[in-house]
Amino acid sequence: MDDQQALSTTTNDISTDPTLDPTTQRKHAAMIERLSNLHQSRVSNKSDPKDPSFESTKSFLSLFTNSKQAIESSLTKIQQIPDMSPNLDLKPDLEKISISITDLEKLVAENSYFLPPYEVRSSLKTISDLKQTLDSVSSKLKPRKKFSFKNKPAKKPETANIVTEDAYKNEEHQSSYKVKDSPGFRSIENEVLIKEFKGAEIGEYVLSDLTNCEVRLTGCFRTLFINRLKNCKIYVGPVLGSILIEEVEGCLFVLASHQIRIHHAKGTDFYLRCRSRPIIEQSSGVRFAPYCLCYDGIENDLKESNLYDDTGSWANVDDFQWLRAVQSPNWSILPESQRIDTVRI
């Protein structure tokens, strides 16, 4: 059965379901009709099987494998350099590899809506392995820091302050993400944190170990890692690649990205704009709504990031821990009456 037949069958099943009231039946039928029209439009506009975005698992796997092998080859060449030392100027090569991995993530994000869940998980695992290899190679090139005694920092006041990333760039914070030279905010409580991405090429950015903080990130960058946040409000402009979120509780996120993965989230609301379906794992009590962020220049940022149009993917969440055909109990659509208004930062 092809996709068009499946949509037709679904429409017939819903229209004859006696458990649904007539209004709900009409809404479901209209939704299926829109999906059917969208499917036909995509098929008619993608007549070239050689197009990387052509809806074929075989075509995707071929392109993905070729890209993966090219990245692995580049990493192997660097690893085979004898006596790697901090004096070797390999940073440009590592940056190119990092960009290639980000492009590979973007490829998965843009095609995940038609890929089988197994292929999505397998591709994400491959990308994770490539990142770990890159981190391992990068760590060998990182010079050792000289030992020095440091005074114990004074305890921060509990009152909220507005700070920028520059105030923390010289501090050392421990993060679970082993991303080479990754800037970000780490180990902060009760503060408003602001970062504007303009005129600088930023790769990975990290938000880690934050409590009762409000974070405002404007502009575009490639990848965002979020780890161990509690009772925080996070407002983020468009991310060109992917966003990975782990261990968050009682937070509010307003995010735009090509791919968003959420692990171990509890009681958290997500206002999203994304090209592919959000992925959750081992999460509960998470709710989703459309992106609602505004700041000067956001329209241009969204267009440049290919995130200007709302595809509605935010409402089609994949719960990898829930394999049944019925709705997962771990996530829901946030009722309109409970949604926040547009946030201007």
Structural class: alpha/beta
What is the highest CATH level, the class of the largest domain? Mainly Beta
CATH topology of the largest domain: Pectate Lyase C-like
- Mean pLDDT equals 76
Radius of gyration: 22 Å
Figure out the total of helices. Answer: 6
Low-pLDDT segments, ≥5 res: 1-19, 45-54, 144-160, 166-180
* Helical fraction: 25-40%
Global outline: globular
Listing every helix as H and every strand as E from the N terminus to the C terminus, the arrangement reads: HHHHHEEEEEEEEEEEEHEEE
Annotation, overall tally of beta strands: 15
Please describe the biggest sheet, giving its number of strands, its sense, and whether it closes into a barrel: 13 strands, parallel
The CATH architecture name of the largest domain reads 3 Solenoid
- Our measurement of the CA-to-CA distance between the termini, rounded to an integer number of angstroms, reads 48 Å
Number of domains: 3
Strand-residue fraction? 25-35%
Describe the structure.
Belongs to the TBCC family. This protein is 33% helix and 27% strand. With 345 residues, it is α/β, with parallel strands linked by helices. The protein folds into 3 domains: 3-45; 57-141, Tubulin Binding Cofactor C, N-terminal domain (Methane Monooxygenase Hydroxylase, Chain G, domain 1, Up-down Bundle), CATH 1.20.58; 161-344, Pectate Lyase C-like (3 Solenoid), CATH 2.160.20. The strands form 2 sheets. Strands 1, 2, 3, 4, 5, 6, 7, 8, 9, 10, 11, 13 and 14 form a 13-stranded parallel β-sheet that branches. Helix 3 (57-79) packs antiparallel against helix 4 (91-111). It is globular. Residues 1-19, 45-54, 144-160 and 166-180 have low confidence and may be disordered.
